[in-house]
Write a structure and sequence with these properties.
With about 230 residues, the protein is of the alpha+beta class. It has a single domain, classed as Glutaredoxin (3-Layer(aba) Sandwich). It contains 9 helices and 8 strands. α6 packs across α7. The longest helix is centred in the N-terminal third of the chain and has 17 residues. The protein starts with a strand and ends with a strand.
Length: about 230
């Protein structure tokens, strides 16, 4: 089963959704199909650049004041911690462009482990308050996915991957993706948002391919044989 995921590296619900998907697969147990995950970029804040702006300040400007921004961050943090994620918006997070991070994800998908790199980037931002436009932060995240730091720095110092990431962003726009996380299961069903693991498990169960004819699925065998 192929699962395509559109996300941004500073989207808290994308980190929550990533872990809810993992939990959904765990809930399926032996019924979980083999899964191939493909990550795709999305820019929640395409106007951001590499100049750090305190996140709380950016949220206050976007959501109508510091009070409302604080409420949103606190509610999101509580949800994440209930999922076991160490999200902490008191670590000095900053608003910066995530384009370099998406280029790193592009590289990891070809030469390393994109899932591990994405997890490292989420953790760096949400749990540690690191600047995701800092090449050293990106190099450290790349190492979590098996990428050599010098390779990451060389990529960031060039235009490598830039055209490919911009093309992917354009495809997301053409597909009508306007919010993240967005999951597309086997190209057949789209799911927008970080739904509870139980709901995701139901969708995965419904869309999972049936066992091949004559194959013992481990669940419908009796004393005289097994049903296909």
């Amino acid at each position: 089963m192929r699962i395509d995921i559109w996300s941004d590296l500073v989207c808290p619900w994308c980190w929550i959704g990533k872990h809810r998907l993992r939990r959904a697969l765990e809930l399926l147990g032996d019924d979980a199909p083999p899964v191939e995950i493909h990550w795709h970029p999305f820019l929640l804040d395409p106007g951001a650049d590499a100049t750090p702006v305190p996140l709380r300040e950016a949220y206050a400007a976007k959501f109508g004041g510091a009070g409302r921004a604080g409420e949103i961050l606190a509610q999101t943090q509580d949800t994440a911690r209930a999922e076991g994620l160490p999200m902490d918006f008191d670590r000095g997070q900053v608003r910066v462009t995530t384009l370099p991070g998406h280029r790193l994800m592009w590289l990891a998908a070809r030469e390393g482990d994109a899932d591990a790199v994405g997890e490292a980037l989420f953790r760096a931002h949400f749990a540690e308050g690191r600047n995701l436009a800092d090449p050293e932060v990106l190099a450290a995240a790349g190492a979590e996915g098996g990428l050599d730091a010098a390779r990451v720095r060389a990529m960031l110092d060039s235009d490598e991957g830039l055209a490919e990431v911009r093309a992917a962003l354009g495809r997301a726009q053409a597909m009508g993706i306007r919010a993240v996380p967005t999951f597309v299961i086997d190209g057949r069903q789209g799911i927008q948002g970080a739904h509870p693991p139980e709901a995701l498990a139901d969708v995965l169960r419904e869309l999972a391919p049936p066992p091949a004819a004559g194959q013992d699925d481990g669940g419908r065998c009796g004393p005289e044989g097994c049903e296909a």
